[in-house]
Structures
1.
Amino acid sequence: MQFFSHHVVRTIVAVFVALALYELLLRAWLLGKLRESLHRRSRRYAEKHDVRVDLFKYGGRLLVKEELLNDRVVNEAMREAARGGPPARPGQPARAPRAPEDVRRDVESYIDEIVPAFSLTAYYQFGMGLAKAAIHAVYRPVIDRASQDRLRSLPKDATAVFLINHRSNFDYVVVGWALARQVAVSYAVGEWARVFPLDALFKAFGGFFVRRGFPDPLYHQVLRRYLQLITRRGVTQGIFPEGGLTRDGALRTPKVGLLDAILQLTCEPDFKRELYFVPVGINYDRVLEDEQLLAEKRGRDNPPTLVEKLLGAAKMLALLPFRIALGIVRALTGRLQRSGYVAVAFGTPVRFSDWARSHNVDLAQQTDEQRRTTAKQVATDLMSEIARVIPATPVPLVARAMLELGEATTERLNDRVRELRAQLDARGVPVALGEEFEGTQQAQAALDADSDRNRDMARLTGDVLASEEAEAIASLGVEHLIRRGLVSRAGTQLRAATGTAQREVLAYYSNSLPALS
């Protein structure tokens, strides 16, 4: 028995030693090797595709935190917060003095909340693969390659800010994936993304959180200085200037807080980088949250609360895995039905120094109020550029035509879609044309390249190709709208739904084409 007891004790000790060695040595070594391998693969991907990955992202959160805590402007804001002062907003009580240690603790919590922990491995080995799977499970993506190629002319030593219209919480995923082979974008994301596991996911992808309407001036000063810090260091950013999702499909009036912070930086004498603004247009044949957004618009004039935003985001996230799983099953059985196109296009990059010169603006000579006015003008001009690059997908075009016609034959709808397409072409607005249109696109390219063809014959051939494209666009749009009960068909006769809620959905998609307004 004594021998047995000693044998058991030795066995237990040996097992514990083996586990300790595994945890301390083997497991750490294996995980380290795995992380190193994934990081190396990510770097090779970035180098192979000449992806712009801003070196400042590798500096680490501690470095950014120290820089912000030692920032002169942040320190002055901390001292002012400790002294108290006038109310943050009219009608509110004056701010009471606060203990310096409480102020510092608040600032540190704000920095921890805002500053991301970018991971190249998370971005490329996991994030972009997951994004691609999610997008293709729900949509057929169309990227305007011609406009995207223009982005390669952006100088490597400049700071680029992508300004994107905001239609869906899916926008982050789509634009990030569309740009993955060119640049890793840091997004300003709203409070809806501050829930587990979204918070860790967005931070690993380089996203920084923004509390809109938060009353503490100290928070806004920390956010402002962080934004200026990453702009100074050349970090490529993605901003949604509307400040929130559109609830009627139309572009919203832009918010200028983040834009003003970036423009303020250009006044500082040590800021030497060129600043470029890149307009980005995104559009969908089906926005996953469209009915929820319209319900918010219908129910009240006030914007949704934080709880409602979180519930809406949770609903979309709960729906997405189901849609992915359903898409996989349908793909395996040959019955895949996706929600139509999601399309992305890019406008010509606007160099701010050129804009300032053409408008005779010198920000260094302006007061804060004058600079904010300038920021509004810049935002208005950039929103006009965004409006011109929002792609027309089949559903918005058909929704627009059916609202105008009410009831029409298939032939009349095709004609109206062709007329709308011609208007968009005249304004330089891209039209999303997927795989179904490869034949007509190749024929049109060959026609354009054949300079020896008879002019009348070329015009006739071009008209035929345009009619074929319009017919295909109309067919795709009608198919999706019939599936949702927004359009009905009897033989060759089409009729738009007359119910109030259904008309609102049609208007929502029609409004997504501001170039036709």
2.
Amino acid sequence: MRHFLQKFSPARILLAIFLFFVLFSGKAAVGASSSASILYDKARVAYHSLLKSKKRMQRRDQWVAVIDKFDSVYSKFSSSGEAYKAVFTIGDLYEQLYSISRRDKDLDEALEYYRLIVSEFKPGRLTDDALYRQGEIYFNRGKYTAALDSYQEILQILPGGDVAPKAKVRVAKIRPLVPVAFPSSKTPATIRKISTRRNEKINLSIGNELILDKIDYTVGSDSVRVVTHTSSPVVFSQGRLSNPSRVYINFNDTRLANDVNRNIKVGSRFLKSLRISQFDESNSRLVFDLNKVGSLKVGVWQEGSQLTVELSDKGAGTATAQKVVKTQKKVKAKAARVKPVAKKIIKRVSVKKERAPAKRIPVRRASRERALKAVNKKVPLIVVDAGHGGKDLGARGERGLKEKDVNLDIALRLKDILQSRYKYKVILTRSDDTFIPLPGRGKIANDNEADVFVSVHANAAQRHAAHGIETYYLGAGHSEDAKKTAARENGELVKSVKDGQVQEILASLISTTKINDSSRLASSIQNELYQSMRKKYSGIKDLGVKEGPFFVLHDTDMPSVLVEVGFVTNKKEEKRLKQSSYLHTLASSIAKGIVEFVQENDPMI
């Protein structure tokens, strides 16, 4: 026994256990590494196969399929070297896709993955390449400050890398283009103290610069609520991205505090994680990496300097909704029990009604009228604007289709659907082929105190292959496509107003609340349009939600959007825009988007 104990002493036992775990974990690590390599190699084969086929490269779904393969590597083996390479390749794929699609969203995706290389992985041989690509995108967009930051970061973290010489050339070229900010005696630096629930922080900002200071989140059984804290109310926009599924919020003219948590692992059944980044020199972006998409509902609202985003399950419903259903059932059951008794009471009253005092009758009638008026106030009023009209033909297709006719047809259908199906009140800015000046259209909505204003248009482009559906809300319109579309829709009015005056109008008339609500209305309509149309028709292209300086939207007091339902300059879409069934589906989809927005905003509307 003593010999046995000497042979297997505690020290030897511990050593054996240690060796066992080292051996086991080593095998597991080798297994994981092997699996990541196999998955990455398969994705790389698919990548090269795509680039060999010019026919496949013209199809967006082929690019997305390859991106999904690389994203699978990142999702399953996020800390591996293969994940590092996969993330860079996804950025490269989106950048190449942009050269074909010319969609700004694809470049945004490329930027996001290049930033992911820098934020989530240790510096490696691809980090400086990602930063350089990021800088090039900013440079081509005219965002010189952001581009300069990207190039300078290369020189800071990898000064001896192969990309450093190119970065130095870029820095020398861009630095003269970036204005130097000198402190002004008129607007001295101010200290803004921001109170948080955890502690008290002090942030320095120049002038009226907004600071995003903190992000909180709460995980519930059927929802996740995220609250962002900024130094004052912020103008924001939102959108959804796929492959992988994400929701994002853009904070306009907002800088991130130095100590804000930029990567938050949530791990709920709705949400994997939150990522916040300085999207460019003036805007921040919060990204929600989603777990569940199918029945997910996204709600956004602002209260002072707090912006709340709630992800919830449409199927599960809220506790309030469940209580309402239970209450309705109880009321119905009670009504069923009371009904026989009520009949008896009514019968007695009818026998004795001659003896009832006459003065009570008008009192009951007046009460009923007031109740009806109260109900009527809750009925949403929608103003539908059929773009162009009369002498203003709008765009024209090769086969003679006039935009003004398409717009009016859809507007009339939209009015009928909103009135008959949803019992909404609807006013048309024009119900026939009449010319109405742009400034007068918004006035119609304001004078009638409308809840929503929707302007219906059809698009046009010099490139006849251009096609798709997009929805605009009022904004500066940074992309060239947005500026061209706005210039065409604004027509003669834009020629009579100088650019400086345009900016003054936008600055003075855009309110934070209106922009935020208009952004959500645009997202709701665009989502319904794309999802509904693609189920019935092939080749429907989602051009997304965009900002644009449209005069028809600038003087409305309520949430306002402009919908471009398709391109009359595209042969396929021109043909479809002549079909009654196609126009009806478009009108029905726009109506659904309006209704979804109204219901989410109730009881505000």
3.
Amino acid sequence: MTAPQHRINDVRAEALAVLRPPDTRPLSAWMEERFHLPGGLSDSPGLVRLWPFQRALCDALADPAVERVTVLKGARLGYSTLLLGAIAHFAARDPCNVLAVLPTEDDCKSFVTSQLEPSLAASPHLRATLAIDRSAEGRDRLLFRQFPGGSLRVVAARSPRNLRAHSARVVVMDECDAFEPTAEGNPVLLAERRSMSFRNRKIIIGSTPTTSTTSHVHAAYERSDQRIYECRCPSCGDFAEVRWKDIRWPEGKPAEAAWCCPSCGVLHDEAHKPDMVREGRWTITRPDVKGHAGFRVSCLIAPHPAAAWPALAAEFMDAKKRPEDLRTFVNVVLAELWDDGDTEGAIDPSGLLPMAAPIGLDRIPASVLFLCSGADVQGDRIEITTMGFTAEDEWLVLDHRILAGSPLQDAVWHDLADHLRETYRREDGVTIGRSMTAIDAGDGNTQARVEMFCRTQPANVAIKGAPGARPLVTRSESKRVRLWLVGVDVAKQRLHDRMTRAAGFAFNAELPEEWRLQMTSERRVIRYQRGQPVALWQRIPGRMAEALDSAVYALAARALVATSPSRRADELRGHTPPPVLPAVIKSRWLTGA
């Protein structure tokens, strides 16, 4: 928006302020009188009722004395509701230009259609505040709203051109730890700069944290006044933040989880939590910092049943079995950083030996429900890894073999087809075959061969590795080829976590030392790109990586298997499970058939 337009909006805002009486109530009080939640966003639709710890956080979002607000948070804490209320406030009570930044364009569309519009529609006093701008065209009609004195624009962080093109007094960033680096640098800094021309600007940053080396929200919280929510102990009356280290339960009995007061050592069960939270307070731990309110809040003080201490203890017990689930628990539930450890180090191949087990394609454990393979196509061979997966999501590397021959000739593909058609007997005598195989089509010279092979062989898919922060498997947007994209960095991180923690991972003890060298052939390093820390996987000089790559592809194959473990267990036992109904049943009456 141009400078003259800024002045026009300022004049409009001043005129509106004269016409309407000033509303000086805190944002929390205003929201509880004006802001409604629809049934799809809340178990209790109707006027919002804020939880005790939400109030001060909510008020800071609209406090003119606070320039920056940083929220280091867990999930399921109502933060999105507070953002919606803040946006409505800056449209209805303090009109100005608002720029909302989310990780991707899909996130932007979902935020507007699934959260903003339903909330406004449910709020009679706000229904027309952010109506669709009918004069806009295309996607701008959805993601741009204009109101007297200002506007709302919702943009994706991965589009630096959109960030650069718009200025706003208020910049709201949600899930900033999911922002990917852009060609123009750190998207958080790019977004902040859009407010530099406003002396009364407001910058709001919120996210669940990620890792100790790449988290944007944690870095921002460290620069804030670092507020923590302290609850009152029912026994001694002291105030303390509820931390995971103080949640205790008897061995094997998570249902008895309780909070241990760090002052008096008395245990208090879940029944005490509502009173503890209601009587709690926000404490500023860095009073020397002015104008930057930082809030740290975890799910441990959330009031809903899924966040009850026994429920979280049971969730933790299950998450401990799989490092990737434990990482999610630490980030999303506890609002804590996942420690990267020695990011410049590499796994010692001998460190894998404790995970060696007497397993193989001739010794498949009875617990294995799925066999999935990944094939890495090289210029003179195809290397294929076959892994077994259990109902508990254990990963068992059963076999790695090399099929010699040029992939530009037919012979090696015949050998691969014969190998993939093989069936095996588990230790309990049950016959099992492969559920899915993912074959690397990233080499431009062999892509056509891979795609042809996958078209003629059942349960095979062509894949291509894609770096960066992305889902493990996504469908390629190309309409010309049938291809799946594999988030290789995500898969390598999951393998790395399991191998370093010796959790949920085992391999055939007869696999040679060269296999262990290849499985540990890359290390995770942190490099700075345009001033932003970025995690990269770097090959150790002199090592091959086919075993690692084919294991990554086997994980992708498992992700593409839609059958549930219970259904697969029935299939292997020879039971015929009920048919899977389609998600949408078409009516013959509607189609006229």
4.
Amino acid sequence: MFNGIGVSRGFGIGEAQILERDQPEVAEITLPESALGQEVERFHTAVEHARTQLRNVLDLIPRDTPGEIESFIESHLLMLNDPMMHDGPIRIIRELRCNAEWALKQQRDAIVSVFEAMDDPYLRTRKDDVEHVMRRIQQALHNPEGESKPEAPQDWHGRIVVADDLTPADTVHMQHQGVAGFITESGGQLSHTAILARSLGIPAVIGVHEARRYMRNGETLIIDGQSGLVIASPNRATVAHYEERSDALKRRIHELISLRDAPAVTLDGDPVTLQANIEIREDIEALRKVNAAGVGLYRTEFMYMNRSDVPDEEEHYETYIAVVRELRGAPLTIRTVDIGADKEIDDDQVGPLAHNPAMGLRGIRRCLIDPTLFIPQLRAILRASAKGPINIMFPMLTTVSEVRQTLALLEDVKASLRREGERFDESIPVGGMIEVPAAAVSAHQFAEHLNFLSIGTNDLIQYSLAIDRIDDQVNYLYDPLHPAVLILIKRVIDAGRTASIPVSMCGEMAGDPRYVRLLLSLGLRDFSVPPNAILEVRQVINSTLLADVLRYAEKIIASSDPEQQNALLEEMNAGVDSIMEQDAYSALFH
């Protein structure tokens, strides 16, 4: 048995297909001046070959596939046009008078080192995309006539692919060919490959170190994408056990589909607002299919990625208007851009990388320092608010003085729009993300100035426990049940209740069915979760009798023993179907 990180819940049973596709060895070759033009042309040809391969992948994607699947492949196509990816190696070829392979490797090392220095988990994981695109170019240089598919289609059907890493293009190929699942030796929960596996419903386990060393081609594998467990050469009884679990999961999917139109309300009659987190416009379709009450978190920083310029006011406005129209009257909460010092947009404005970007110039701190980045977005949000219900939410608040500064700036923008005769919602609700422990402790002060609060548990837990959850050396300490974390969450909820303003939670903890009853017991009544978690969370809410579970929250907070806490949580969740597979019913979104 092997343990890894489950990233796409569900079960896969099939024969192992070991994928050996290591990067070709690269050596430096010094070229004469007369050969540099031909070498640059050779590099251009390899880039074009890589582009053709990715376009062929796009042709394989069915029309009814979720929009983010295509967008990930298109992002790799855009990266091929990026000056760092395209012009950088050419400059190195000419400066060092070296071969294209060596120039590409030098540029790859330089870019990856920048990403590895980043502290934001999502941005740091984007180094995988750089690796994937550059590997594709490198392979085109090594084998100009080769195909992008490493195995024939028939070799993938019903198999469990075991690889060092997989690109988004590989993942699309595998889904198209009907694989049973995949295992990788590297990768993170926030990698595009992991996100695609969840969206496509492919059971997957990543981070199984040296998997290819110990697994054999053709042997039977079972993967549990929820627990991250991999079983090699199982006996018949084990296979039968997982086949039964797989059948139970199919029944579970059918039950969840029946909850699409059910209201979110506890057995005691307490209504709960259940909204969705979105990142791109295409997520709206998934939101509709599960009948979410609206968008509780729209992450706008994705508008800034995979480009060399900054979106202007009109681009912001057109994007928000399109989302408002598609929501058809449901509320939209737009979080203003949360880009830190580790994401360079303009060298003249950003300056050198921070030593610790997660605690540096990010979120509202960055926006207040750089109004030229902030004001166009505020203007666009306000203008869009004339077309439908919109809330503004500010990230990474630490002090009340930041709130005062931000509200003053917002009033200045409103005054400017009035002078121009632009319409907007004069009483647009303004809220703040509570993700810094200092803000959680003083949440009652923030509640005096804002219309709503939203708890971002991903950062709140990391900052409270001083750990990086994607660092496999310390991520065992990432514990949503830590008493300090629960006390901070309850403090924020209580502050909202005292001030009579809503408090929502938009972090991963809100979308994990294991914690729903606990959060309800702490007083949370507004959840914002990924669209593919909504039905599972709704099912837990609708099966919860608060009178029976309220007593557990105090016991869990009071306990200092993680085993006892988990036992209490399990007891609290009695009666909830033990198969919690919020990602496994992704077929709903196809």
